[in-house]
Amino acid sequence: MKKVLLAILAITFSNFVLAQESPTSPTKAVYVELGGAGLPYSFNYDFRFDKDNINSWGMRIGAGGYTLSPDGDSFFSLPIMVNRLYGKGPHYFELGFGATFFAFDNSSYDYCSNGYFDQNTGEYICTNIQTSTYNFILDVDGSPSIMGTMNFGYRRVPVDGGFTWKVNLNPIFNNNGFWPLFAGIGVGYAF
Fold it and tell me: Do residues 129 and 123 lie in contact, with contact meaning Cβ atoms separated by under 8 Å?
């Protein structure tokens, strides 16, 4: 897993090293997104395949996650999407599709969901025991897992680069269903 992440980071940052001149319009961006394809949140790098045309196909790669405590919940996501920008600077419609790989601490635990207090013994008697399992809006079969993602939204990219932001609708799906109303908002820097 570490080798795969290192390879992805090497490919991502090789674009920075190979760039000789910056194009007239910004075709790269780094941003943080709340919701969206990274699920709870993600840090992303977005670039256009045509380095001279922002109004073209591109790709985003990100990473997100959290750990609540050493023995608590943890989550890691890796969104990868192909996207296309349509419009004229600084206003663009963004259309994309891809997948988010994610892993989480899938330990389940039992808890009492219904019961009563016995007056004679002074004990609580549980009549219904439930097992908690993980889901993220849609049921998830286990960890690691993959969630399909789509992207329909607005992206504002200044013609000379700088502060950029986006708002998008991100339908998600897996083998357990489809959720059309997931959304995301992102802020970052275009260059």
Answer: no
- Give all strands (DSSP E) within the chain, no chain letters: 28-35, 41-48, 57-67, 74-88, 91-104, 109-118, 123-132, 135-136, 138-139, 145-156, 162-169, 172-174, 177-179, 183-190
N- to C-terminal Cα separation, the chain:
30
Predicted structure pTM score:
0.72
Using CB atoms within 10 A of its CB, is residue 1 exposed (0-12), middle (13-18) or buried (19+)?
exposed
* 3 state SS of 14: helix
Could you say which DSSP state residue 181 is in? T
**Pair 84, 58: CB distance under 8 Å:** yes
**SS3 category, 26:** coil
Query: What is the rounded CA–CA span in Å between residue 32 and residue 35?
Result: 10
Confidence category of residue 24, pLDDT binned at 50, 70, 90: low
For residue range 172-187, list pLDDT tens digits in order. Answer: 999 989 999 999 999 9
